[in-house]
């Protein structure tokens, strides 16, 4: 799978764990640190990448502005080690979570999947 990690979610642990698992990982910290969320959304769509973020702004872009989007995973309340484990678990066990026009909010307790 191909991921675009928002600056707020681009920990070394998460980048390394996803890359070590064979995934293509692009960190917004590497060349896109000043990009607006709208631009990251467009980049992810163009490159067929799943956005991983910690902020709620992507939800606003999708639900309020109705911008087209790829899959978005928002991590909430997790440390970097937990983030990597949870994302790998989502990929392996939640087939409905990883597809276009879906926003996932992932916490320790649950995964909330919202189709837009």
Descriptive report:
- The chain is of the alpha/beta class and 116 residues long.
- It has helices at residues 12-20, 37-46, 57-63, 80-93, and strands at 2-5, 24-27, 50-53, 72-75, 102-106, 111-115.
- The protein has a single domain, classed as Rossmann fold (3-Layer(aba) Sandwich).
- The protein is built from 4 helices and 6 strands; from the N terminus they run βαβαβαβαββ.
- It has a 6-stranded mixed beta sheet, sandwiched between helices.
- Helix 1 (12-20) runs parallel beside helix 4 (80-93).
- The protein is globular.
- The mean pLDDT is 89.
Main sheet?
6 strands, mixed
Which structural class best describes the helix and strand composition? alpha/beta
CATH class assignment: Alpha Beta
If helices are DSSP runs of H or I spanning 4 or more residues, what is the number of helices? Answer: 4
Which fold name corresponds to the CATH topology? Answer: Rossmann fold
Provide the succession of SSEs.
EHEHEHEHEE
**Helix coverage percent:** 25-40%
Termini separation comes to: 21 Å
């Amino acid at each position: 799978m191909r991921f675009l990690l928002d600056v707020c979610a681009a920990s070394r642990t998460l980048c390394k764990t996803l890359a070590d698992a064979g995934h293509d990982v692009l960190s917004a910290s590497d060349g896109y640190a000043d990009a607006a969320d709208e631009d990251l959304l467009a980049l992810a769509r163009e490159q067929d990448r799943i956005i991983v973020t910690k902020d709620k702004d992507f939800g606003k872009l999708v639900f309020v502005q109705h911008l087209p989007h790829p899959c978005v995973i928002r991590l909430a309340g997790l440390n970097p080690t937990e983030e990597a484990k949870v994302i790998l678990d989502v990929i392996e066990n939640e087939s409905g979570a990883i597809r276009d026009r879906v926003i996932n909010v992932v916490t320790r307790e649950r995964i909330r999947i919202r189709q837009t």
